[in-house]
Amino acid sequence: MTARLSLPRPLRFRDYRVLWLASVLSGAGFQGEFVVLGWYLLEATDSAFVVGLSAAVRTLPNVLIGLPGGALVDHWDRRLMLRLMSALTAASTLILAGLALTSGPIWAFFALTLVGGALRSLFQMARQSYAFDIVGGEMAMSGLAFMNLAQRVGGVAGSLAMGFVIATRGAGEAYAALAACFALSAVVMLFARERGQSAPSSRQSPLTHMREFALELRHNRTLAVLALLVAAVEVLGFSHQSVLPVLARDVLEAGPESLGALSAAGAFGGLISTLLFSLLGEVRRRGLLFIVVLNLFGVALVLLGNAGSIELALVAVMAVSALAALSDVLSQGLAQLAVPNEMRGRAMGMWTLAIGSAPLGHAEIGALAAVYGAPAALIVNGVALTTMAASAALGVKRIVRL
Question: How would you classify residue 373: left for phi > 0, otherwise alpha for psi between -120 and 50, otherwise beta?
Answer without folding.
Answer: left
